[in-house]
Amino acid sequence: MDHKAAQDERKTLVGEFISVSEAFESSEDIAAARALARSFLTDVQAVHGLPVSGRAMGMVQLVVSELVTNARKYAPGPCLLTLDIRNGTVEVSVWDSSTAMPTVLAPDPARVGQHGLEIVMALSQSFQIHREPVGKRITAALQLADDPGGDPAGRQP
Question: Where are the alpha helices (DSSP H) in 54-150?
Fold first, then answer.
C-alpha cells in the first residue's frame, strides 16, 4: 500500500462512527453491560484498527458498571447503554427513566459507598448529565489509548 492509500485508510477510520446500544432491565444485567463494553472495544481494535489500551479497556468497563448500577438501583424500568467511538474517545452514555438528577457528593474517605459518580468523573475526560423528555442521560467520555503524559483520563494540566 502506498503512502497516500495509507493516509486515506486512516482518514476513513478516524471519520467513521462506531456505536453499539443495548437495554438492561435487571441488576443481573450489570455483568452483561460490562461484557458488551469489553466485546465492543475488542471489535473496535480488531475490526476497525483503532488502538484501545488495556487501561482504557478496564476503565470503560468500570464506568459502564458504575453508571448501569446507578440506573438499575435508582430508576424504574430498563436503562439504555450506548457506546460511541468519536475522535479517539469512547462515549459511555446511560439513559434511565428517572427524572431525579444524581447528587455528586464531595470526596469523603470516611464515607462507605456512594462513590460511583466520583469514580466516573475522576476517570473521564468529560462528564455530563442531561434531562431528556423522559428521564435523564449521563455521558462520560474516555480516551481509547493511554495518554503519553500519564493522565488516565487524558486531561491537560
Answer: 54-74, 116-123
C-alpha distances out from residue 57 to 23, 34, 39, 104, 142, Å: 21, 10, 10, 24, 10
Here the cell at position 1 is: 500500500
Which amino acid is residue 118, in one-letter code? E
Residue reference for cell 443495548: 22
Alpha helices in the chain (DSSP H): 3-15, 30-46, 54-74, 116-123
Residue tagged 434511565 (cell numbers):
96
pLDDT value of residue 7: 37
Q: What is the pLDDT of residues 59-114, one digit of tens each?
A: 999 999 999 999 999 999 999 999 999 989 999 999 999 999 988 777 777 877 77
For the whole prediction, is pTM greater than 0.90? no
| Distance (Å, whole) CA 137 – CA 19 | 16
Write a three-state SS string for 39-60.
HHHHHHHHCCCCCCCHHHHHHH
Q: Which amino acid is at 73?
A: K
